Structure prediction request, 309 residues.
Amino acid sequence: MKPSPLSQQQPSRHSGVANAVAAYFMWGLAPIYFKLLADIGAGEILMHRVIWSSVFLLFLVIVSKKWSVLVVLCKQGHVIVKLSLSASVLAVNWLLFIWAVNNDHLLDASLGYFINPLFNVALGMMFFSEKLRRNQKIAVGLAALGVFVQLFTIGSLPIVSLALASSFAIYGLLRKKMQLDSFVGLLIESLLMLPLALLYWVVFVDSPTGNLASNSVNLNIILVMAGVVTTAPLLCFTAAAKRLSLSTLGFFQYIGPSMMFLLATFYYKESMQLAEFITFVFIWSALALYSVDAFHNKKNERKLIGTDQ
Prediction:
């Protein structure tokens, strides 16, 4: 007797949920890794992240037998130009995140990734002519109000948060327009960054940790692990994206910034002003409204599909 499609679908969905949780859980724990390298400059850490990500991703592409896809894409000049742009935005995002974590701005990083889904909504409206539902408009308005509260109370915008949110949203927008294999695309982006990373290592790095031969074995292992820290969550995320709808996947994206918030507040003891807390409350309220709206919209779509059948 053949298993029913429903019985095949359930394990696949459960696997998707497990992979989604694993991906966002690893992203949430990433600050702990970068804190281990707090005595090393952000530029040097970024350099190692690019180099070892390139090595690890190249290994994955070969093992997954996607070498032919890589070769085909590398021959397309317009694709390389677009990936050069997305690689630049990704490098900025990586550098900002490393700097934020190691300079006691983990709360700002957490806020940035809480804001990110709402940036995605705004970019979807601007570039894909997506219509915002009433609750989505209210959610974006609440987020904007939260940012303005901090501006008028403290006298400055949460620049780090907005830069992280906007750079990651822009990167997602660029990659969405390209419709490329995620691993191969990220490998090409890493390879495009690689010459600059190697040049930076040879010419500009002037620190005791710049020479791997003089480092301890433990430190070198931590530095090389930058490749795994970068790509392992992506492996799980890609596996989850294949098994879950984007709306379902979206409900898990708050795991990462929530863990960052808890780490910053209770483990690393970062201070938070009242205005900053109020900003978080506005953002959380916006995300709650956004999530409930997405859930009800998905439910209504299923009802309509069921009616049509």
In short: Residues 274-308 form the longest helix (35 residues).
